[in-house]
């Protein structure tokens, strides 16, 4: 199957979690965000499904994935679907749900990271909510990053295989997503994240192991992986990393 991934052009965003799974799974896919609007990509491709009157089950927002006749929205939902065919999740029901649960926890972390620079409204510019952003970022740095990191370190420690990964002895999409979240935090909060990671060696090891995997490394070096930037989920404002 040739998958079609739909996401906003110019940013990694939530689409990157799906891209990493597709890349690691060796899937053939079309990334419409990398195609110009004139060739049916970009925002034009999104609007066909977001605004199209003939879409019976429209997604709320990108990312969404077209897999044959299926149109699947929400990052965690897409990954739950891909986990089986891409062999990035356990086969048993309990294992599938556990990986999905971990993915949802990563999603919570990503939302909180985003809300440090948009604590009042996503419709306002950062400059219009700077005082509130500084307060939110301080709590995120001092309390929330350590809380999430401590949780994932605990999961890694309690994995009975005592290996690199969150679940069993094979990489799952939750590992890929957690590594991506850590990479994003390193960009947005280099001081706070670097300090926190010193206490969590297994989490650091997981991040490095994911981005050292041959397919992920090849993708990162291909030019198709966009750089982090300050129009994205993770944004680096030095005053928020004070």
Question: What can you tell me about this protein's structure?
Answer:
The protein has 242 residues and is α+β, with helices and mostly antiparallel strands. The protein has helices at residues 15-24, 42-50, 75-82, 93-117, 130-158, 173-188, 190-197, 201-211, 214-220; strands spanning 2-6, 28-31, 64-67, 70-73. Strand 3 (64-67) and strand 4 form a beta hairpin. Helix 1 (15-24) runs parallel beside helix 3 (75-82) and helix 1 packs across helix 6 (173-188). The relative contact order is 0.14.
Short characterization:
It contains 9 helices and 4 strands, in the order βαβαββααααααα. The protein is of the alpha+beta class and 242 residues long. α4 runs antiparallel to α5.
């Amino acid at each position: 199957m040739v998958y079609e991934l739909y996401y906003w052009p110019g940013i990694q965003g939530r689409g990157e979690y799906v891209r990493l799974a597709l890349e690691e799974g060796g899937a053939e896919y079309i990334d419409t965000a990398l195609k110009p609007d004139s060739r049916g990509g970009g925002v034009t491709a999104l609007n066909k499904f977001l605004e199209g009157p003939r879409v019976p089950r429209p997604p709320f927002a990108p990312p969404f994935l077209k897999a044959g006749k299926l149109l699947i929205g929400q990052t965690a939902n897409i990954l739950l679907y891909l986990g089986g065919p891409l062999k990035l999740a356990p086969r048993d029901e309990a294992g599938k749900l556990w990986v999905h649960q971990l993915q949802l926890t990563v999603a919570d972390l990503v939302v909180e990271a985003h809300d440090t620079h948009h604590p009042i409204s996503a419709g306002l510019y950062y400059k219009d909510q700077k005082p509130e952003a500084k307060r939110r970022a301080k709590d995120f740095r001092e309390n929330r990053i350590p809380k999430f990191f401590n949780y994932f370190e605990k999961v890694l420690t309690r994995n009975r295989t005592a290996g690199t990964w969150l679940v069993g002895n094979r990489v799952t999409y939750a590992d890929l997503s957690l590594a991506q979240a850590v990479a994003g935090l390193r960009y947005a909060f280099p001081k706070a994240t670097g300090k926190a990671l010193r206490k969590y060696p297994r989490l650091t090891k997981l991040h490095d192991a994911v981005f050292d995997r041959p397919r992920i490394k090849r993708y990162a070096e291909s030019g198709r992986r966009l750089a982090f930037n300050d129009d994205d989920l993770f944004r680096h404002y030095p005053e928020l990393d004070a």
